[in-house]
Amino acid sequence: MDSSDALVSRVFREKVLKWLKRYAPFVATLLRRRRKVFSALSLFACLFVSVLVLRSIDGTAYEAAVSKLDQFRTLSTSPQPVIDSKQQLVQLYKKIHFDTSLEYPTVYGLHTDLLTVQIGPQKGEKLNSAADLRFYDADPRLVWSVLASHLAQASKTVVPLPFSWYDWADFRDYNKLISVQHSPLNCTFLFGHHFNSSLLLQIETETGERLFDIDRTYYNTENGPELSESEIQDMLKRANDSCVADSRSSQLDSKRSQSSNAFSTGFIVKTLQDQVRPEVYRLQARNYILHTLSLPLSLTVLNGNSGAWQIPIKQDRRENIMQSGLLQEYLDRGSKRSKTRGELDHLSEFDKFAESDGSRHLLVDIKDLKEEKTKAFAGLFTYLQKSDFEFDALAKIEELASRAEFLTAHELSYLDSLRFSTQTHFAFTPKYFQEPGGLKDFLELGRHHDARFFNGAIFRNPDQSLLRLNSMMITFQAFLKANHLTCWLAHGSLFGYLYNGLNFPWDNDFDVQMPIRHLHILAQNFNQSLILQDPREGNGRFFLDVGSSITHRIQGNGNNNIDARFIDIDSGLYIDITALSVSSAMLSNRDAVFFNQRKDSIGTELKHRDPNLIANKTDIPLQELYNKLANDSSHSDEERRQVEQLIQAYKINFPSNPSPTKFYAADQRYNLNHELGLYNCRNHHFVQFDMISTLVSTKYHGVSALVPSKYIALLKREYRVPMKSYGVTYQSRSFLKGVRSWIQSSLLRKLMNVAGRHEGLESVRSPANNLNAEDVEILLRNSAKSNSLEFLAYMHNSKEISTYRLKEIELHFSQKYTAEKKHSLLIQLYNEVGSRLKPIMKDPFIRFLQDRKWNELSSQLELSSDDLSELNLEFAESVIAWNSLLDRKDLPFLSRLSDKEAGQDDGDLNINDGAVDHSIVFKADPKLFE
Ligand SMILES: *[C@@H]1O[C@H](CO)[C@@H](O)[C@H](O)[C@H]1NC(C)=O
Ligand SMILES: *[C@@H]1O[C@H](CO)[C@@H](O)[C@H](O)[C@H]1NC(C)=O
Ligand SMILES: *[C@@H]1O[C@H](CO)[C@@H](O)[C@H](O)[C@H]1NC(C)=O
Ligand SMILES: *[C@@H]1O[C@H](CO)[C@@H](O)[C@H](O)[C@H]1NC(C)=O
Ligand SMILES: *[C@@H]1O[C@H](CO)[C@@H](O)[C@H](O)[C@H]1NC(C)=O
Ligand SMILES: *[C@@H]1O[C@H](CO)[C@@H](O)[C@H](O)[C@H]1NC(C)=O
Question: Can you give the residue ranges of the LicD/FKTN/FKRP nucleotidyltransferase domain (predicted)?
Answer without folding.
Answer: 481-720
